[in-house]
Amino acid sequence: MTNSGKGQNDKPETASTGDYPQETPVETQGTQPGSEAEMNVQPVVIREDYRGSGKLEGKVALITGGDSGIGRAVAVHFAREGADVAILYLDEHQDAQDTVAMVEAEGRRAVAIAGDIGDVAFARQAVEQTVEQLGQLDILVNNAAEQHEQKSITNITPEQLERTFRTNIFGMFYLTQAAMPHLKEGSVIINTTSITAYKGSPELMDYASTKGAIVAFTRSLSQNLAEKKIRVNAVAPGPIWTPLIPATISEDKLASDWGETPLGRPGQPAEVAPAYVFLASDDSSYFSGQVLHPNGGTVVGG
């Protein structure tokens, strides 16, 4: 099944909790990392009744993978809480423009920067551009990732292995290193890991391995930056309906077991983004080195 190219006017950007889709959609896209503008069944970005209360007033956030999916939802939630936002993305220009429009509709400034976070030069340039255009940097959200389904470890080529690690974990190091001169006491770093770091994934072995590395990176960095009073935490989502899913998960898997959770349905980005708001705000002032688990009820260790 392929997408039908639905656009911005068809997006159900908001929904009430009771209106979240109860079944896993079945659709695929041909290229990574996927386009939200072309999804038949649109993700829910923010709840209709979500009320901002100025938790991030005066802050500036940089969000990788902020053009769509969880990153888009985080950008919109941050904006509703008073933050200006820079989003980094690969080449999904329409998605990025849509996200910028959503942030600006919340009355905040938005900057969209295209490039590959696995390139250290781009990572440095993106941080400098963020600070130049928005004046400061207070919150870094390392969220961008890629994944490639393979049924056997022998099918994972050296090129795929390096590419997955370069995007998913090298990029986090590069962005964090570039951000450090601009972060100060009270700044926050939030990394996106995954339920696969705890459960494993038989067909996403390299991806799951990077997500395990992110957990260790988060815990180690939190200890390293404790003296600077910079907090570092992570979010480990379960199955969430984002463009990465139809772009990487096969149709037969989507139709069978993807999205099975104790709550009986896949999650929406709107259900994950408030965890990032919590970790970015003073509400989590005694949290560092921790991982939150919005995963539909699956109990995992750590």
TrEMBL record:
<feature type="domain" description="Ketoreductase">
    <location>
        <begin position="59"/>
        <end position="244"/>
    </location>
</feature>
<dbReference type="GO" id="GO:0016614">
    <property type="term" value="F:oxidoreductase activity, acting on CH-OH group of donors"/>
</dbReference>
<comment type="similarity">
    <text>Belongs to the short-chain dehydrogenases/reductases (SDR) family.</text>
</comment>
<dbReference type="InterPro" id="IPR002347">
    <property type="entry name" value="SDR_fam"/>
</dbReference>
<feature type="region of interest" description="Disordered">
    <location>
        <begin position="1"/>
        <end position="43"/>
    </location>
</feature>
<dbReference type="InterPro" id="IPR057326">
    <property type="entry name" value="KR_dom"/>
</dbReference>
<dbReference type="Pfam" id="PF13561">
    <property type="entry name" value="adh_short_C2"/>
</dbReference>
<feature type="compositionally biased region" description="Polar residues">
    <location>
        <begin position="14"/>
        <end position="34"/>
    </location>
</feature>
<keyword id="KW-0560">Oxidoreductase</keyword>
<protein>
    <submittedName>
        <fullName>NAD(P)-dependent dehydrogenase (Short-subunit alcohol dehydrogenase family)</fullName>
    </submittedName>
</protein>
<dbReference type="InterPro" id="IPR036291">
    <property type="entry name" value="NAD(P)-bd_dom_sf"/>
</dbReference>
<dbReference type="InterPro" id="IPR020904">
    <property type="entry name" value="Sc_DH/Rdtase_CS"/>
</dbReference>
